[in-house]
Amino acid sequence: MSQKLLDHSTDLQKLVEDGYELEIRGAFALVHHIPYVNQQAEVLYGTLVSPLSLSNNAAIKPETHVIYFIGEHPCDKNGDKLSCITHQDLTQDLGSGIIINHSFSNKPIEGYKDYYEKFVQYIKIISAPALSIDRNATAQTYCTASEDSNTVFQYHDTNSSRASITAISEKLASQNIGIIGLGGSGSYVLDLVSKCPVQNIHLYDADHFYQHNAFRAPGAADMSDLNACGTKAEYFHEKYSHIHKNIHAHNIYIDEDNVSSLNGLNFVFICIDKGDSKKIITQYLIDNSIPFIDTGIGVTSVENFLLGQVRSTLVTPDSQTGLSSIDMNIDDDIDNAYKTNIQIAELNCLSACLAIIQWKKYCGFYQDVRKYTTDVYSINDGVLAHENTSAL
Fold it and tell me: Name one Pfam family in it (predicted).
């Protein structure tokens, strides 16, 4: 068990001290070896599971009185189901290797004040019939409590657990993600990817983080950050390592001499506007069957208004139709809207959001019935189009 979590959570600590077999796995608390009676009037053992509500790595008052159970439905000593706690009979994958079979409901008027009260109350109800059959049946085994420390986050993802979407979120796990370019959209891509259970996030940008970058990027840079004048890769590595453990900064521009450093990545976000670099990067990714998303923002000033488009294009080993949407000749076109270099925070953010949604669809996080490869948002008419041929 994480000593830090126990030290700050007296209710969890008391469960351990009283001999209950507590395990912390992901953002769930499990108490094993709960004796109960099944419909054949046999004494069996199951596991109670509750999502954890945490603040500053400490357990707080449970948000829900409902609890999950792994095992058959508990019964009285005659084999009749305990109707006083019946809620739902379902088999559901909560993620983190937790597959539950039932959910129970026994709500005090003011809810449960802590997890000790919640677990013990359900244990008493479920175990009472078993104790009447077998005096030695007990949930207090005094076995060593344990915690699953195999997490990429600095603290548990209670957002997924409270919404029961941990199993869906795990579709994003084990990936090595690359983000090329952090001056605009790339920084917002990082902001969103850092909250996903990917294995590693690699940042590629040799440019320095200057004052104007603070107005294009997520969060609020401190004056000390600006005075340090570090690279963008270093700056964002430091900021986002507060939530994700495995972020790696590479102070390089990707070119033909180092493009092989992308080898081993499972997915790449290209967030740069240099056509020559894009040619090198996209060709290498295609040759090595690495899927990627290219983002593009084209904004220009006309008659004292800003207008333009925001684009996100997905290219995979199985579908390269979106390549025609990627402008590889930006550096050669003097009149291209990119040359104005107008970047607005919300457009950078929108570009990243479109890219992340495409990536999550590709990974099966979101349902995708259309399989579009390019999304383009037009600013002045507010149209979000899905196409494969339009280039910015």
Answer: DUF6791
What long-range pairs does 59-62 form, CB within 8 A, spacing at least 24? Answer: 59/5, 59/8, 59/9, 59/11, 59/12, 59/29, 59/114, 59/115, 61/111, 61/112, 61/113, 61/114, 62/111, 62/112, 62/114, 62/115, 62/118
User: For the chain, which residues make up each domain, given as ranges?
Assistant: 3-152, 173-387
Q: Give the pairing of strands 86-95 and 67-70.
A: unpaired
How high is the pLDDT of residue 390? 41
SS3 90: strand
Q: Which CATH architecture has domain 173-387?
A: 3-Layer(aba) Sandwich (3.40)
Contacts of 141 by beta carbon, 8 Å cutoff, 6+ apart? 19, 20, 21, 32, 33
Could you report the per-residue pLDDT of 78-94, keeping only the tens digit for each? 999 999 999 999 899 99
